[in-house]
Amino acid sequence: MTVMEQRGAYRPSPPPAWQPRTDPTPLLPDTTPYRVLGTEAAAKADPALLRRLYAELVRGRRYNAQATALTKQGRLAVYPSSTGQEACEVAAALVLQEQDWLFPSYRDTLAAVARGVDPVQALTLLRGDWHTGYDPHAHRVAPLCTPLATQLPHAVGLAHAARLKGDDVVALALVGDGGTSEGDFHEALNFAAVWQAPVVFLVQNNGFAISVPLAKQTAAPSLAHKAVGYGMPGRLVDGNDAAAVHEVLADAVARARAGGGPTLVEAITYRLDAHTNADDATRYREDAEVETWREHDPILLLERELTARGLIDEDGIRAARDDAEAFAADLRTRMNQDPHLDPMDLFAHVYAEPTPQLREQQALLRAELEAEAELAAEPEGGAR
Ligand SMILES: Cc1ncc(C[n+]2csc(CCOP(=O)(O)OP(=O)(O)O)c2C)c(N)n1
């Protein structure tokens, strides 16, 4: 048979019995971000929870302002403010049970503080120290992670291990929109879904990765849609609506706890401040855009709801502000005290058995510090 004859006899056939492995429809996110405040759903929200969220938002806003002020006074090396994103920060902290774990990024100091980490200790790393500053096990808050998205595989590992051990633990990991472009995001979500790990991913889509807008990061319909490719549900929520973020995260955490596997939540929010105190946001965005987001401020949205439902009055608002002022004053006072640092600490906890090179460097530094101490002890005008 000639090749042409063979071709003539060829009958294309479909791949054998192909089916989608799971039905993607239930995994798809809503077409618009889920909202509670100002909608009918708000009537079902627990008044005590709304009041608690409000108090924490006001305190969080003040914390952000105070920490930013401390950078200007040289008390803090850098501060990535979460002003405008407080609803995500606070809801993430409040939604977890005591035994659960939070995996924050560098922007999520507020979530760590709302979960109980000492506000000064939470700033240790940003003060320029070499260590985390707080005991991650005390409140089950992993170290604030500066390398983008590296906290995500950590969260999956912890959640998977807990499940294997039969421990009732859910991990909630926070990441920015820019972080979703990292390989670690992909690896974490893939393993989480394959293992059905009890983990929830909260993407705070604040519009920018430093100066890079989301449109330059991805052509996906939304970041929540990425969930479908991994085989987990994606949820889209108004990230400035504290009640909505809390509800969506609570559902996802409950699902994870019940063995239902991971969820990816995308919260649409906006970073009202610059990337950090070292960034000039006017170089890449218009003031008018910022102003439209000020109209959709998380504190404003919740305050309107509470007021409309008679759940807060002027005294209540003042009490929340006074509490936030006292919180900021305490932070200021404690941050204005010089920390006592021992440079020799640099060598502690590196290896159980220090390497010869480290021992050599340690000896050099010790000699230098001793020489300096001797010099300082000499009477003025001594043999210098
Ligand atoms: C692995 C890695 N690459 C690059 C950086 C530098 N970097 C720091 S913040 C940032 C932008 C992150 O944006 P996004 O994830 O949206 O978080 P946001 O800062 O907006 O909270 C970049 C690229 C880093 N920290 N880690």
Tell me what you see in this structure:
The chain has helices at 3-9, 47-72, 86-94, 109-114, 136-139, 151-165, 183-195, 226-230, 242-257, 287-294, 298-308, 314-335, 356-377, and strands at 101-103, 171-176, 199-205, 208-209, 212-213, 234-238, 263-268. It has 384 residues and is α/β, with parallel strands linked by helices. It has 2 domains: 25-335, Thiamin diphosphate (ThDP)-binding fold, Pyr/PP domains (Rossmann fold, 3-Layer(aba) Sandwich), CATH 3.40.50; 343-376. The protein has a 5-stranded parallel sheet with strand order 1-2-3-7-6, sandwiched between helices. A two-stranded antiparallel ribbon has the order 4-5. Helix 2 (47-72) packs across helix 3 (86-94), helix 2 packs antiparallel against helix 11 (298-308) and helix 6 runs parallel beside helix 7 (183-195). Residues 107, 146-148, 176-179, 206, 208-210, 271, 275 line the site of thiamine diphosphate. Its cofactor is thiamine diphosphate.
Compute the CA-based radius of gyration: 25 Å
Query: Which H/E pattern describes the elements?
Result: HHHEHHHEHEEEHEHEHHHH
Quote the average pLDDT. Answer: 95
Report the sheet with the most strands, covering strand number, pairing sense and barrel closure. 5 strands, parallel
Q: Considering the protein shown, what is the CATH homologous superfamily of the largest domain? A: Thiamin diphosphate (ThDP)-binding fold, Pyr/PP domains
Distance between the termini: 102 Å
Q: How many domains in all?
A: 2
Overall outline = globular
CATH class descriptor name of the largest domain: Alpha Beta
Give the beta-strand count.
7
Which residues sit in consecutive blocks of at least 5 with pLDDT less than 50?
Answer: none
Quaternary form: single chain
CATH architectural designation of the largest domain: 3-Layer(aba) Sandwich
Structural class: alpha/beta
Bound molecules: thiamine diphosphate
CATH topology name of the largest domain = Rossmann fold
Tell me what portion of residues adopts beta-strand conformation: 5-15%
Strand ordering within the main sheet: 1-2-3-7-6
The level of helicity is: 40-55%
In DSSP terms (H or I, runs of 4 or more residues), the helix count works out at: 13
Region (Disordered): 1-29
GO molecular function: magnesium ion binding; oxidoreductase activity, acting on the aldehyde or oxo group of donors, disulfide as acceptor
Keywords: Oxidoreductase, Pyruvate, Thiamine pyrophosphate
GO biological process, one term: branched-chain amino acid catabolic process
